[in-house]
Design a protein that fits this description.
By secondary structure, the protein is mainly alpha-helical. It has a domain of 69 residues. It has six helices and four strands, in the order E-E-H-H-H-H-E-H-E-H. Keywords: Endonuclease, Hydrolase, Nuclease.
Length: 126
């Protein structure tokens, strides 16, 4: 089977040929920037405390709140913060600020609040 030809790295000014979008050197840089900008509060979500409380909350509230309002029964898979916490630990751990949502409702809500693909303040409508 033929192999896909290598192409230049997409990083501006880099002449290296690669099979991926970026060469190894620049892929590390891109990953580091992505992790820093896209998940600044990741340490809160990666804690054992959050995993335990999330599991308990989903056990108590197994249905998606948004779908329930529309009269649809859907299993919840995500614990959503009603008011975005933006690193405020008091708001992050406040159970009255949580709601259970299915993945599609959570993604829709987050896209409306944050703007799609990290473009804050830019909300799309159809």
């Amino acid at each position: 089977m033929p192999v896909k030809p290598k192409r230049p790295c997409s990083y501006p000014g880099c002449p290296e040929l690669t099979c991926d979008r970026y060469c190894e050197k620049h892929q590390k840089e891109i990953n580091k920037t992505y992790n820093k900008n896209c998940r600044p509060y990741g340490y809160l979500y990666n804690s054992s405390r959050w995993r335990r409380l999330r599991k308990q909350f989903l056990h108590k509230h197994p249905l998606c709140e948004e779908c329930k309002r529309k009269g649809i029964v859907t299993a919840a898979t995500v614990v959503d913060h009603i008011k975005p916490h933006q690193g405020d630990e008091r708001l992050f751990w406040d159970e009255s600020n949580w709601q259970s949502l299915c993945k599609s409702c959570h993604d829709r809500k987050t896209a409306k609040e944050d703007g799609r693909w990290g473009r804050k303040g830019r909300v799309y409508s159809y």
